[in-house]
Amino acid sequence: MFCSHCGKSVAEGASFCFYCGKPVVVRAQVLRPVVPARAEYYDAYSKYNYPYPYNYDYDYDYSCSEIPPFRSFLGLNIILSIFFCLPIGLFGVFHSVKALKFYRMALYEFAWLQSQIAQTIFWVGLIIGSLNILYQLGMICQNFPVFLEFMQSTL
User: Is residue 124 within a helix (H) or strand (E), and if so which, with residue range?
Assistant: First the structure.
């Protein structure tokens, strides 16, 4: 007997394939058409694969009550807008809130995509804000002797 999914030989009477883990279907037992898993509709290398790289060798049951892992980056973007770069941080907060909205509406693919955008905005804003802080510190250090000379002349 052979597995209908991977084609490898399977022991007689086995209910699951030892190699691919999928249920072995005997031709007489076929009661309903095989529906491809949701992940098979997407290209394996697409950035829209949802929500994180699952092991696509196994069928994933999307009818269960499991909630997929999710991170909106809202807190990080709020900290970014307060301490580093206000305009970029507010743009990140916008996408984080949008991701939370999609997540609550159970549109997990859109929520994951928005959270990836919010994460990218966070890192770009953190780099730009850090470079701005380093520039400002350099300007302070460059003008510090002039400031000391001014303070000594006023005393």
Answer: helix 108-154
Q: Which residues pair with 9 in a beta bridge?
A: 2
Q: Which residues pair with 23 in a beta bridge?
A: 16
Q: Residue 102 belongs to what H/E stretch?
A: helix 86-104
Tokens of 135: 């520039």
The pTM (predicted TM-score) of the whole model is 0.51
pLDDT of residue 66: 55
Eight-state DSSP code of residue 38:
G
C-alpha torsion 120→121→123→128, nearest 10: 140
Distances (CA, A) of 71 to 51, 79, 94, 110, 118: 11, 16, 14, 13, 10
Give tens-digit pLDDT for 110-129: 898 999 999 999 999 999 99
C-alpha torsion sign, points 123, 129, 132, 137: negative
Residue 34 DSSP label: P
Higher-confidence residue of 56 and 125: namely: 125
Tokens 């290209």 locate to 43
Domain parsing of the chain, residue ranges: 1-34, 37-67, 70-155
Q: Among 154, 71, 63, 64, which residue's Cα sits nearest to residue 117?
A: 71
Can you tell me the distance from the alpha carbon of 32 to that of 36, in angstroms, rounded to the nearest whole number? 12
